[in-house]
Amino acid sequence: MMTSGAFQRRLQIRRVSGVVFAVLCLAATLAGIGALGVLLVTVAGDGLARLSWDFITSYPSRHPEEAGIKAALAGTLWLMAFTALFAVPLGIGAAIYLEEFAPRNWTTRVIETNINNLAGVPSIVYGILGLAVFVRAMDLGRSVLAGSLTMALLILPIIIVAAREGLRSVPQSIRDGSLAVGATRWQTVRFQVLPAALPTMMTGVILALSRAIGETAPLIMLGALLFIPYTPSGPMDRFTVLPIQIFNWVSRPQAEFRENAAAGIIVLLIVLLSMNAVAIILRNWFERKRSW
Amino acid sequence: MVTSETSVPIQYAAVPMKARIDNEMDTKQEPAMEVRDLSAFYGNFRALRSVTLPVPKQRISAIIGPSGCGKSTLIRCLNRMNELIPGFRVEGEVLFEGKNLYDKKVDAVEVRRRIGMVFQKPNPFPKSNYDNVAFGARINGYEGKLDEIVERALRQAALWEEVKDKLHKSALALSGGQQQRLCIARTLAIEPEVILMDEPCSALDPVATLKIEDLMRELAREYSIVIVTHNMQQAARVADFTAVMMMGEDRAGELIEYGPTNEIFTNPKEKRTEDYITGRFG
């Protein structure tokens, strides 16, 4: 039997250890947010002054005050558009097959495991693959097309996983109801499952694209240019993208270029955060529309 | 339903006898469907053993029995809903218009078009009331005016008055009982010959339950209905015929007795049926 005094002492210790643990967890949270805050403040302090309409509409230059990100921004938009064009239909198609049609057997399990593994492959490896397959073997050159195909491969596993998540969120009872009125499996997927799964899928797609937008390594591997005084006018043109431009400026010796880099980072962050915001708005909007 | 499982004896006097047609004559009629020596398996597990059962035309047949006795498995065999489950297979036959549903030449989509199903939990599509009812007609390429098909189905399901002013509002805004009648309307819109109902009232309150039961009696003038229920009073109230199922030694479901509902409830031949319906077991 524990005496009342001993119980009280133990209770005190239990309370204190609870508080200590909560404080530690709070500190861990603040460490992450704090680091991000410091980064944003520093970048804003360095780059805001440099940010102007001229900065966005000028080509790169040897003179830091004249240099701009027009080529890189255009390159990023071209690259993203083509990446989405390749990755979204393929990713959603693969997800639909795996989730709705594939037999549950050994082959399917092997494919699923490998897709999950692919999501973890370092991006530089995709760069090497892109260089060997798209640039050299298919002779596409160091073009927007080769770059976006590589990026599409890179985010394909992420899109597949996200799209399957969306399909799985649709209750089986909806499929049953559709099949029970004589719909084929394809009609069930097309008219019931896909519309219901779309918001979750779109969120996943946008998040995957926002990962691609920040990727640098595979494009450097592919040989995206560091300095181009023009914007791509077609998929076969050479290109550069925002992170590469930023990387290029940071590695210059002149301090002024570092201000340009900071301003470039701000533009990249704005593009990225607006994509994420769109994802969140879409999800909330659709979730208010449906509930089961 | 508001009843206690253990109340013995249960009052079955409320059975609407007048609504019943002469059962003697019924049994001689050609059935709508016939289950013959049907066994069902999930992988290696045997869920049903050698069930033989008729589904009489334009009558309500209830399948009752304790949990896990294979009632749902059996009813889902009648429109091939089970075959979507990996590892599921059947042995034996389910005859519909003299043809075995499980024949290789028979298309499951056609089967489900002609043998409709209403599920345990109301499962309207997350769309408007109108689109819910019109969906089956649309995908099956029905000729004729969709508006008329929708109205007729909703009237048949006794839901028209309640939803006629909100046809294009979300079906998810309806109450549970209304949703279930919407699911019935959705089934009626494709003009099936048989309607399968898998515990259609288990998620509903007593008032909504009574509405569905009235509706079933109404529908039985035109359709052959099979209902699975774990509520014996419900079977007693609505069904013309009742099949009692139990779990065997190896947990496989077996049909232990079948007959006109009033005979099953007043004069069961099997001891196990009597134990079950008097609440001594199950």
Describe the structure concisely for a colleague.
The complex is a heterodimer of chains A (292) and B (282). Chain A is an all-alpha fold.
Indicate the CATH class of the domain at 32-123 and 195-277 in chain B. Answer: Alpha Beta
Stretches with pLDDT under 50, minimum 5 residues of chain A: none
CATH topology of the domain at 32-123 and 195-277 in chain B: Rossmann fold
| Average of the residue pLDDT scores of chain A | 88
Beginning-to-end CA distance, first to last residue of chain B: 17 Å
What is the mean predicted local confidence, pLDDT of chain B? 87
Count of β-strands of chain A: 0
Radius of gyration of chain A: 25 Å
Describe it.
The complex is a heterodimer of chains A (292) and B (282). Chain A is built from 11 helices and no strands. By secondary structure, chain A is mainly alpha-helical. Chain A folds into 2 domains: 4-50; 55-289, MetI-like (MetI-like fold, Orthogonal Bundle). Chain A starts with a helix and ends with a helix. The mean pLDDT of chain A is 88. By secondary structure, chain B is α/β, with parallel strands linked by helices. Chain B has 11 helices and 10 strands. In chain B, the strands form 2 sheets. In chain B, strands 6-7-8-3-9-10 form a 6-stranded mixed sheet, with helices on both faces. Chain B has a 4-stranded antiparallel sheet with strand order 2-1-4-5, covered by helices on one side. Chain B is globular, with a radius of gyration of 19 Å. The model of chain B is unreliable at 1-26 (pLDDT under 50). Classes of the chains: A mainly alpha (292), B alpha/beta (282). The A-B interface holds A 103-104, 171, 173-184, 187, 191-192, 196, 289-292 and B 79, 81, 84, 86, 109-110, 112-114, 116-117, 119, 121, 123-126, 135-136, 139-140, 172, 183, 186-187, 189-190.
